[in-house]
């Protein structure tokens, strides 16, 4: 047990889906998993373990932002021994080619966060997805006819950017296609502790065209992302 998690060792499967939103964790457990059991409710940051296609898998909410995700991920790896971590998030769009409801597989994650900059002195560490998970997700998305884009994500500490889209500066011109708030920290921790990680996001609001998914429809629009992530997780 930890200050943030009252699960005991063995309560989690080796692979976990990581939504930011605790209610998304509950929805995933109740909608997709068989025999889902609540394993953590500290701070209402809900975690469940159940089965998908007969294989054990967990889902644990991380809250919003890299400091919050880092706490849950650090403990999932170091206290509970998890080996495969797949974030299932929502993100904003930074490229008009990416339409709302499209999936972004975050091949890499750029960031403005000190949480990643912290340890690398003069070097700019490049947080990247596990290649095997990325390849599996891309192949499965392709086979299922899902609209997806693999590319560079921005994991920003700022949701309300004072300068709006302009605040992202040169990043969209350098191929950054989406913005969310956690992938870079997830990839950095996975690298540090030698486990596998991937971020899959559904694009919910485009910062260029201002097209967006209505708040009430957001959860149900995430079905493709969740089934894809579950398929990748149980085969990892
Ligand atoms: O939908 P989730 O997984 O929370 O992800 C995105 O949504 C939150 C901001 O609204 C941030 O956590 C961002 O990364
Ligand atoms: O972090 C996020 C998530 C969704 N949409 C955004 O613009 N930013």
From TrEMBL:
GO BP term, example: purine nucleoside catabolic process
Top-rank taxon, per record: Bacteria
Class of enzymatic activity (EC top level): transferase
GO cellular component, one term: cytosol
GO MF terms held by the record: purine-nucleoside phosphorylase activity; uridine phosphorylase activity
Binding, phosphate: 20, 24, 43, 87-90
Site label Important for catalytic activity, positions: 218
Keyword Transferase: yes
NCBIfam families named among the record's database cross-references: deoD, PRK05819.1
Family named by the database record: Belongs to the PNP/UDP phosphorylase family.
Protein name (database record): Purine nucleoside phosphorylase DeoD-type
Species assigned in the record: Devosia ginsengisoli
Gene: deoD
């Amino acid at each position: 047990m930890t200050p943030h998690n009252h699960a005991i060792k063995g309560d989690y499967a080796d692979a976990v889906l990581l939504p930011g939103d605790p209610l998304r964790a509950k929805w995933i457990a109740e909608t997709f998993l068989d025999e889902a059991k609540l394993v953590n409710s500290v701070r209402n940051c809900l975690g469940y373990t159940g089965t998908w296609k007969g294989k054990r898998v967990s889902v644990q909410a991380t809250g919003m932002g890299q400091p919050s995700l880092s706490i849950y991920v650090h403990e999932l790896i170091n206290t509970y021994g998890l080996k495969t971590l797949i974030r299932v998030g929502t993100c904003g769009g930074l490229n008009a080619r990416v339409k709302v409801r499209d999936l972004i597989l975050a091949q890499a994650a750029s960031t403005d966060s000190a949480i990643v900059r912290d340890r690398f002195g003069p070097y700019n560490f490049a947080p990247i997805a596990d290649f095997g998970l990325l390849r599996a997700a891309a192949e499965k998305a392709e086979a299922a006819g899902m609209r997806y884009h693999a590319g560079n994500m921005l994991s920003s500490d700022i949701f309300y950017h004072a300068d709006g889209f302009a605040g992202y500066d040169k990043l969209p011109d350098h191929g950054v296609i989406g913005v969310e708030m956690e992938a870079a920290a997830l990839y950095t921790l996975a690298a540090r502790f030698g486990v596998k990680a991937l971020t899959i996001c559904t694009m919910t609001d485009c910062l260029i065209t201002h097209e967006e998914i209505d708040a009430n429809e957001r959860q149900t629009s995430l079905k493709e992302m969740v089934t894809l992530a579950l398929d990748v997780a149980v085969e990892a």
